[in-house]
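Hi R.,

Here's the chain you asked about this morning:
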Amino acid sequence: MSMEYSVPIYWRNRVNYYKLIGGRCKKCGRVFFPPQSRCPYCSSDNVEPVSLPRIGRLLSYTVSYNPPEGYKLQTPLIIGLIDLGETRIIAQLTDVSLEEISEGIEVEAVVRKIREDRTAGLIHYGYKFRPVISH
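And the predicted structure, written out as tokens:
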């Protein structure tokens, strides 16, 4: 299955896949993810990009044993609702077993392989969240 991006388009947009960037509405002050040109809360177009924290707390999660095409090698696929303070996001969890995961744990954003598109010759990287490793 070929993804929607060609190699040149993916390469030009690669910075957006590695940074955790949201939007902040200058009218209502709300922070949201993913970034959009209009605020999803008040519809203002006065929006600025904002870097989101890379550390958050896992509020809830779900496990898929039958993930979509392109994610089959990542079974079971763990998706979590992450509280980043000013906003919440949904993201894939990584580097954790089902026995180790629990609601309330502290998690951090890391860059990992998301999927492969062998037809286009692309390996997609992006952020996922893993439990914070205490030293």
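The chain has a mean pLDDT of 86.

Let me know if you need anything else.
M.
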